[in-house]
Amino acid sequence: MKLVRSTDSGALAGIASTGEAIDRRTFLKRSGVTLGAGVAASMFAPQLMKKAQAAAGLSPKEGIQTEIRKSICTHCSVGCGVVAEVQNGVWTGQEPDFDSPFNLGAHCSKGSTVREHGMGERRLRYPMKLVAGKWKRLSWDDAIEEIGNQLLDIREQSGPDSVYWLGSAKHNNEQAYMFRKIAAMWGTNNVDHQARICHSTTVAGVANTWGYGAMTNSYNDMHKSKAMFFIGSNAAEAHPVAMQHILRAKELGSKMIVCDPRFTRTAAHADHFVRFRPGADVALIWGVLWHIFDNGWEDKEYIRQRVYGMDEIRAEVARWTPEEVERVTGTPPEVVKRAAEIMNENRPGTIVWCMGGTQHTIGNNNTRAYCVLQLALGNIGKSGGGANIFRGHDNVQGATDLGVLSHTLPGYYGLSNGAWKHWSRVWDLDPDWVKGQFDAAEVEGDNGKPIHPMNYKGIPVSRWIDGILEDKNNIGQRDNVRAMIYMGHAVNSQSRGPEMKKAMEMLDLMVIVDPHPTHAAVMNDRTDGIYLLPAATQFETYGSVTASNRSLQWRDKIIEPVWESLPDHTILYKLAKKLGFHQEYTRNIKVNNDEPLIEDITREINAGMWTIGYTGQSPERIKLHMANKATFNTTTLKAEGGPADGDYYGMPWPAWGTPEMKHPGTPVLYNTELPVAEGGLNFRARFGVERNGVNLLAEDSYPVGAEIQDGHPEFTDKLLKQLGWWSDLTPEEQAAAEGKNWKTDLSGGIQRVAIMHGCAPFGNAKARSVVWTFPDPVPIHREPLYTPDRSLAEAYPTYPDRKRFYRLPTRYASIQADDYSGEYPLILTSGRLVEYEGGGEEQRSNPWLAELQQDMFVEINPVDANNNSVRDGQMVWISTPEGARILVKAMVTKRVDAGTVFTPFHFGGWFQGKDLVDKYPAGTAPYVRGEACNTAFTYGYDSVTQMQETKVTLCKLST
Amino acid sequence: MARMKFLCDAERCIECNSCVTACKNENEVPWGVNRRRVVVLGDGEPGEKSISVACMHCTDAPCAAVCPVDCFYTTDDGIVLHDKDLCIGCGYCFYACPFGAPQYPQQQAFGVRGKMDKCTFCAGGPLADNSDAEYTKYGRNRISEGKLPLCAEMCATKALIAGDGDTIADIYRERVLQRGTRPQTWGWETAYPTG
Lengths: 959, 195
Description:
heterodimer, A: Rossmann fold, Dimethylsulfoxide Reductase, domain 2, 32 helices, 38 strands, 15% strand, globular, disordered N terminus, B: Alpha-Beta Plaits, two-stranded antiparallel sheet, two-stranded antiparallel ribbon
């Protein structure tokens, strides 16, 4: 019997394991204490003993009235309903939400524990600041006053662009919107959130292919899929409740293909597993498509009607013979061929991808290649088909839609003067006042031409450290970033740890707004100038949230904010008040005791988000859906009878027009088999009407009931007049629509009339498989910056370096030029664990989850382990070419192939071999801490969105 | 009269541990005590299967047969419970149990065993239904409220099902028919070897 404490203080002892199977959990459990059975209570750290006592006060009690309150899980994007039992304001129990059509009562390990938010032993309790290396408590008023003064000083000296507003996918929709709005009114586009490092390449790639960058169908719609092609998605760990729908499809006969460098838990349920080298997605997809073209399996009529540029794709794909595909991907030809056969024989088929595909320097090529595969098969715009892009965080779809992004305002309006004018009208503000909040002087833009800061894409979240570290003469703004506001952000989700530490230490001010102190508070060696503000979780406030399938759901408040925490929108309002623009900030919004009224914010969102149809989902309609969840069909998501009869659950956007128009939402994007008024659509006309003499509009394809039975451009006032439909507008609508289009007509009249005639407001065009505005119009393979194979780097080189890209110099070729493959022979990749999410701060602080994953680890194939003298369970250093190294536990497993090692990305609280437990404010260190794998991940950014390359770099192991 | 049973459909179990944490939440089970756990076979290799295991509430429970103080009893619903006031924490039931269900919170690292703790099928214990005393000692009594164990009710993929044996057999049979093949569930090949 051996007794090992995993760490000296704060950490918890592990649990015993019985049974012989050495699985991942057994392995991990053994890292703690190994006993025959049971566990030693004395091994509990003092904090946990205290926890047990605290928890006793929050347990259900007999004889007290129990109230039921409903919310939505705050972990992933599936949108599982949460049912809470509350006694005297204390959250005492959780019940299954059987009525929810998304989860039908189910939860994963994380959803099953959300009640812990209300206990929150490890949460930050009150505002704190770091003074001479010590955390000091202070009042909210003092905190806001001090922070505000420093922000205003920085603004005075360096301009508004020197303050970086880093928002969150954990905001609800209303908070996300208010976050983008505060950055706009502060006068900067240096605002972003984790969608940048999650699915930004999806949004860019997919929106530029067929109009919108979101999941086209839904988890539920997968019941109808005959084939499911997963690539870079480990749904069993990242979207566990989605697996309920996936396995249901499988039981109905659907074939499941999983392409991944690892034999994941999702792969364990697949009919066909395709292992391939990290970063070779385009090669693999073109390898599949090669067989489809070779056999004439493509849907020729669909392509004729609805796809532009497939011939150019065909030319590129012709190069990807089975031999070349094997050379680049490492996948045997017959395995690739079988995947193509399955997709051909089983239609409609759907494709699912996640971060395995997006986080690459060619992420935008990957996502477009996935789209092209589906277009070739004729699978898009069909129930059971589609691109089912599983989003990550619970509201990453909503936060993206609401523009917590450096390159656009809410609703993907962009940053043009027209976009600012549109939103200024919605905000009821003079556009010149808004402009006056920005730096007045133009700077040199990405293309070398002068640009006003208001119209210039801000620094993306993946690169904020370069906004600090880079010589200010090299960046596209007046001065460096000097203050960072992290609101619901895990810095351990970003690469280049040692440089991040240095950047943090150069800042004037760090403000961390979060339920937990986060890795950001401890990973640097600052002694002053960090503020921690306790944020309420989404269970302590209310509002709308958008699931991956574009449905909006409403959360009720379950409990009051714990301790001194406050909801995000209240904190933002307090800041706006201090910064002096709170009246402009909330012109249409009632404010009670510094809390802007959520419903008023939703209505302002409804008033401005015409582009993507966030206009029909009024608070009243969303609440009606929540109250009648059980009336929605669990496959189609359509209400069958009941008060919401005919609506789709949560009115998946676009829900066109005003709420009064009662559009039911669009369950499957681009589905021509339904009238637009009932959720049908076609591809969006977004890229013009003609290119090089080729028609970009759809041909002979249109939604059922459309009066224009062919392709057409987007609707404007002029088009309505040409068609003779202008008189269908009411006089009020005519007044509002004059000189406007479907995106800017605030009356919604143009949309209403277009739909009345059966047409999609955004026109009817072909999807484009060639995006001529991107660096690689036809998606091509390019080797990762750190590649193990020099011959491939020569055959498939990366991009040239760029002088200015999102305001920053961005390197490609100059990094790939050096050969690191000798000293660093192994590929390092990363991914998810089911118990944790994102940076893991919240889950590692939840004892019910933390107990199940106690150590940061690395999966190593037995061959690599033996070649490097690494034994299972041993601590091992992973070093990467830019000089970072992390100390993690070795797990020897065939889950990864020889040549590749894998690390999960949810850990934090260690830095390069050192446990930082002493640096947290007392009592707030997460129960489980470990190295952030991203400390070791290296340079590399997508050529369109600046997505970081965290799915492939090189490393070596040492003991 | 119902006979309550658990069934874990290994074709559906994705090893997400929802059952484990739902149990922790519902019964406030302390760190280190696992009334339910997920066992994985062939981790990381083709054929990997997982199954969620807790007390199986045996009809002829070996734990009860060996208990020197006779602290076990079977409810009318066929749920095997025990009386912690009688339990002496000897660990004999742990030897007898084929599933490793009994758990022993300990007071010291190398010390005396605590009272045995195990899955109650969310049926509490011998104390008054839904009393604070019952909750503290045994956890929630969902059965008395007409609900089923939370681990099964919250299972992410409905792999773990709980309820009257006849009903869960019906559900499972329907799934097997739907799959149109012989059960692929873990254990089948051991019970009915091919060839």
